[in-house]
Every structure is written in C-alpha cells, then in structure tokens.
Specification:
single chain; alpha+beta
C-alpha cells in the first residue's frame, strides 16, 4: 500500500525530470575528466540522445531502470496501483527507445545504453571503465585506414585495438 496520498504521489512523479539526472551527471563527469568532449541532448538527432560524442560517432543513453523498463533489474517493477497505465507507458518508452536506436544506427551512429543500476557504487567504476574502453575501440576502428582495393593479394588483418591480451577488457553494451 502506498504511504502517500494520490495528490502527493502525483506531485512526486511530476517532479521527476528527464535531463540532468544524477546517473547522467556521473557519466558526464567521468567522460569530461578523462578527456572526452561531448554535446548534450543534441536537438538534430532522433531521440535527443543524453550524450553525443561526434568524434567517436557515438550516442550514449543513460536510462533509468524503472522508466525504460530494464528487464531483469530489481528497480524495474510495475506499481501495484494503476497497473494498466504504467504497463502501457513503459512499453511505449521501450518501443520509442528501440525506434530511436534503429534510426541512429541507420544514420551511422554507435549507440550505447547505460542503465541506472550499472552506476551503483559497487560496480560504477567497472561500468565507466568499460564505457571508456568501448569508446577508444570505436575510435581506433573508425580511424584505421581502409585496405586498398587495388591490391590483388590479400592483406593480413590487423586488430583494430592495441590492448594487452593478458588483461580482461569489459566493453559497454552496444546496441
């Protein structure tokens, strides 16, 4: 049972904003401190991604687990009151997110989604390090020179990264 009255609950839910959330600020501070420069909520891109890194052709979405329906996450539970409304709303959000990612990838952008639960203190650093490694791999792959089609003999494939193979590298989930 909800401890708040319907009016109080409405006021609380209406006060939640979609920009400059705490998880978003955590990611932005990390990226800026590590030399990544970005734009926020780019108005000319589909879905107005939270963070746009043009140099890396990458859009980063920092999603709240409840609002975007993070399946398998303990923070995503449909409220027991007004269940139909919340189910429809979260399903619309999921559909919109999938459509936005599809449009961005069709335009040549890489899309990375970071979930709010991945920024909890226990695993925050691992998530942010994975994001950094993923961005660096995207950049290295993007800047690797194309092999010329004029050569008749096959060229050996070079890896597009230069990491120590003894280390295990975790990459951020790309969609």
């Amino acid at each position: 049972m909800d401890k708040l009255s319907p009016e109080q609950r409405h006021k609380n839910m209406a006060a939640i904003h979609s920009k400059n959330t705490k998880p978003e600020i955590i990611v932005r501070r990390y990226l800026f401190a590590h030399g990544f420069r970005f734009r926020l909520n780019h108005p000319r891109l589909p879905g107005h991604p939270d963070i746009v890194l043009r140099k890396y052709a990458t859009c980063v979405f920092v999603n709240g687990c409840f609002w975007h329906g993070h399946d398998g996450c303990s923070a995503y539970r449909i409220p027991k009151t007004n269940t139909d409304f919340w189910t429809r709303k979260i399903n619309r959000n999921k559909t919109r997110d999938a459509k936005t990612i599809h449009q961005l990838t069709a335009l040549g952008w890489n899309c990375i989604t970071i979930w709010e639960c991945q920024l909890k203190p226990a695993i925050r650093q691992q998530t942010l390090n994975s994001l950094q490694q993923t961005l660096l791999q995207i950049y290295l792959h993007k800047t690797q020179p194309e092999t010329s089609l004029l050569h008749l003999e096959p060229q050996p494939q070079k890896p597009f990264y230069n990491f120590d193979d003894t280390e295990s590298v975790h990459l951020a989930a790309e969609e």
